[in-house]
Amino acid sequence: MDELRDRKVIQGLLASIKEKVRQIPSPVRIMEVCGTHTMTIHRFGLKKLLREVGIEMLSGPGCPVCITPDEYHVAAINLVEKNGNIILATFGDMTRVPTSMGSLQTIVPAGNSLVKIVYSPFEALDTAKKNPDKDVVFFGVGFETTIPGIVLSVKDAAENRIKNYSIISAFWVIPPPLKAIVSGNPSIHGFIYPGHVSAIIGESPYSFIADHFKIAGAIAGFEPGDVLLAIRSIVDQIAAGKPKVDNAYERVVRPEGNPTARNLMEEMLESKDAYWRGLGEIPSSGLKLKKRFSSFDAEIKYKIELQFGSGDLPGCRCGDVLQGKISPLECPLFGKECRPDSPRGPCMVSFEGACLAHYKYSF
Predict the structure, then answer these.
(1) Which domains, from first to last, does the chain contain?
(2) 308, burial (CB in 10 Å: exposed 0-12, middle 13-18, buried 19+)
């Protein structure tokens, strides 16, 4: 692992990429899909170094907190504000996302209700077990990486008849929005595919990007050397005119992914059309609990109706950042009205958010 941060190794990879870029007639634009990759690129100063060798990096929709529309947050706020005896449990970042109604961190819950920050869905489930007189709702958000753990908590609740536990399922799958992005942004030449998600779904779900859209791609780990190895592979593919899905993270990602996790999702979830911040509604890009688990679906249990289309707070361009249309620095609120201590959008809230990464390491 030390080698992947070694200065000489990094310099060697950059030199190799620079030499290969010379074989390509136009500037190379690569989108890193995962927010953790965004953090790595900024933390280690790779964005500037890559620009110097002819690579422009774009941030994509790889932050689940960021792409979750405000309507989900408003629904969670309404649930805990208007209903007594509820514990709304969620991850810390989710409590800070600003909406027109404030955030989960700033609201005043109804009598005997509260918002609880947890570190895993099983902590929320344990809260339900210890508080049988209260309804515990886990506001679950995530991609294929975290979804299996959340639905496993539902399976545990079903098997042990924990009837006071349910989830708001803001579940998203990565491949469909990539199709939406390349359809609307033909100047993208390559994708760095997310390592965590790929550890679950494997390599083949991305193959349509290479086969149909002829765009290069590589799965990457999260050390700076990992990212550069993936970029070198992408540049090689572009130069050769042979796009594919390369696995540059073989120490973690298997070609077939994680069959156990995938089988669990298949058992408990079904596909749905889902609304993404900035990207709108994308067919078959979300997941929801199957009908036989509907008693654990908070949207059904509490008759939550989600009406999408309200958009971000005035001036916030998080949606454009998630599509790679603009850099965070191009948002007029960035670093002024919108800062980590007073965010105007989720891209400045989440640790994986592109705006926070730019502010923390490149501003």
Answers:
(1) 2-62+175-247 (3.40.50.11750), 66-173+257-301 (3.40.50.11740), 313-357 (no CATH)
(2) middle
